[in-house]
Amino acid sequence: MNTVNALKVRNNFGEILDLLDKEKEPILITKSKKIRAVIIRYEDFQARFIDKQAEEEKEKFLKQVKSHGAPSLINEDSVVTLRRLRGYTD
User: What is the pLDDT of residues 19-75, one digit of tens each?
Assistant: First the structure.
C-alpha cells in the first residue's frame, strides 16, 4: 500500500490516480505525518459500500413484504397482491 503526503496529492493528482489504477491498492494520504485519508478505486468503493447498501435495502424491503403476510402471497395473482400491499381494498 502506497503512502503519499497531501501536498504531493494536491500537486500531482493525475499522477496519483494513475498510480491507483496501476497498483489497484488503496493509497494512504498523510498530513503532518498522520494518516488523514485513503483514496480507493471506484470499483472497490462500489463493492464495499454501494453494493452493500443496495443489499441492505433489499433485505429491508423483503422483511417488510414478509411482515405483511408474504406466505399467503404464493397462490395469489400478482395484481391482487400488489393492490393489497399498497392498501387498496376491493
Answer: 999 999 999 999 999 999 999 999 988 888 777 777 777 777 778 777 776 555 556
Q: Encode pLDDT of 42-57 as tens digits.
A: 998 888 877 777 777 7
The residue ranges of DSSP E strands in 1-90, in sequence order, are 2-5, 27-31, 34-39
Report d(CA 56, CA 58) in Å as an integer. Answer: 5
Q: What is the pTM of this model?
A: 0.56
CATH architecture for residues 2-40? 3-Layer(aba) Sandwich (3.40)
Backbone angles phi, psi at 67, to 5 degrees: -70, -15
Half-sphere exposure of 19 (CA within 13 A, CB side): 15
Give the β-pairing of 34-39 and 27-31: antiparallel
